[in-house]
C-alpha cells in the first residue's frame, strides 16, 4: 500500500515563512478536510447504521486507537453521558497505554499487536458489541491485531483510516477511508488527519444519539443537569417546549424529574 499520510508536504522552507503565510497555508489545507469526509459519506453512513443497530440491541461501542486519533476519541466519549444522558460504558475508548495515561502520549504502546485485544477481553467484549479501530496510517499493530481477533470471534468491526487499501481497512467489516493527503508538516498526522478524526467522531456520535432518540427537534432534552449553566439552559428549554412562563416553577419541575425529556412528558 502507498502511505499518502507519509508523503512529503507540498510546502517547502517553512522556517523562512512569516506567521501570516504559515497560518494562511494551514487554513487552506484544513479547508480540504470536509471535502475528504464528503467523499466517504457512503462508508460513514454504513458504519453509523451498524452502530445504531448494535446499541439498540443492547451492545456497546468501543473505539480502539493510539496516538492523536485515540486521544481524540477519548474526548468524544467523555462528553456523551452529559450531553445525551446515556449511561457510562455504552460508548468507550480502548487507548494504547491506557486512558489513565492519556496525557503521557505513550506512543510506543501502539506497536503491541495483542494489547488491544487483551484490553477488549478485559471489558468482556462480545458479538453484541461493535469495535472501531482508529489509525491514520491504517497499519497500527495495536489496532490491526485487535480487529483481526475480533473477526475470528465474529465481533463486528469498523475503522477510520487515512490511507487507501490499508491492512486495517481490509480486515474491518465497515471501513471508513478519509483520504486527507500529505500533511502540512510531513507525516504530522495530528493535523489534517486529526481534524478529520474529530469531525468524524462528532458526526458518528451525534447522528447515533439522534437515531437513538436522545435528541428532540434540535435540543439536548436528556442533558445531565451537572452545573448552573446547563440547568439554566434546560429550564429555558423546558419553558419553550411546554409553554411554562414561570422560571422558578419550571426549574422546580425540571429538578424533580431530572431531565427536560421527563419533565416535559410529565407536564403533557
TrEMBL record:
Ranges of residues in domain SIS: 51-214
NCBIfam families on file: PRK05441.1 (NF003915), PRK12570.1 (NF009222)
Keywords: Carbohydrate metabolism, Lyase
Descriptive protein name: N-acetylmuramic acid 6-phosphate etherase
Lineage start: Bacteria, Pseudomonadati, Bacteroidota, Chitinophagia, Chitinophagales
Keyword Lyase carried by entry: yes
Organism superkingdom: Bacteria
GO MF terms, alphabetically ordered: lyase activity
Organism annotation: Danxiaibacter flavus
Gene3D superfamilies: Glucose-6-phosphate isomerase like protein, domain 1 (3.40.50.10490)
SUPFAM superfamilies for this protein: SIS domain
InterPro entries: Etherase_MurQ, MURQ/GCKR, SIS_dom, SIS_dom_sf
Known EC number: 4.2.1.126
Amino acid at each position: 500500500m502507498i502511505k499518502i499520510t507519509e508523503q512529503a508536504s507540498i510546502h517547502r522552507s517553512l522556517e523562512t515563512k512569516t506567521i501570516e503565510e504559515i497560518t494562511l497555508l494551514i487554513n487552506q489545507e484544513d479547508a480540504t478536510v470536509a471535502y475528504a469526509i464528503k467523499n466517504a459519506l457512503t462508508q460513514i453512513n454504513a458504519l453509523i447504521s451498524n452502530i445504531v443497530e448494535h446499541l439498540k440491541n443492547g451492545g456497546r461501542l468501543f473505539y480502539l486507537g493510539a496516538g492523536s486519533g485515540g486521544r481524540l476519541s477519548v474526548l468524544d466519549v467523555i462528553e456523551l453521558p452529559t450531553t445525551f444522558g446515556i449511561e457510562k460504558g455504552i460508548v468507550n475508548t480502548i487507548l494504547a497505554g491506557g486512558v489513565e495515561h492519556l496525557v503521557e502520549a505513550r506512543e510506543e504502546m501502539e506497536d503491541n499487536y495483542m494489547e488491544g485485544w487483551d484490553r477488549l477481553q478485559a471489558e468482556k467484549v462480545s458479538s453484541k458489541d461493535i469495535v472501531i479501530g482508529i489509525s491514520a496510517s491504517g497499519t497500527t499493530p495495536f489496532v490491526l491485531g485487535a480487529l483481526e481477533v475480533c473477526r475470528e470471534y465474529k465481533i463486528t468491526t469498523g475503522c477510520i483510516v487515512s490511507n487507501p487499501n490499508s491492512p486495517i481497512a481490509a480486515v474491518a467489516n465497515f471501513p471508513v477511508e478519509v483520504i486527507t493527503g500529505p500533511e502540512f508538516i510531513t507525516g504530522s498526522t495530528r493535523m489534517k488527519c486529526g481534524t478529520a478524526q474529530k469531525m468524524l467522531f462528532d458526526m458518528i456520535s451525534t447522528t447515533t444519539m439522534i437515531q437513538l432518540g436522545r435528541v428532540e427537534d434540535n435540543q439536548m432534552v436528556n442533558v445531565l443537569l451537572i452545573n448552573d449553566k446547563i440547568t439554566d439552559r434546560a429550564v429555558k428549554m423546558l419553558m419553550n417546549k411546554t409553554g411554562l412562563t414561570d422560571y422558578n416553577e419550571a426549574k422546580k419541575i425540571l429538578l424533580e424529574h431530572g431531565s427536560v425529556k421527563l419533565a416535559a412528558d410529565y407536564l403533557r
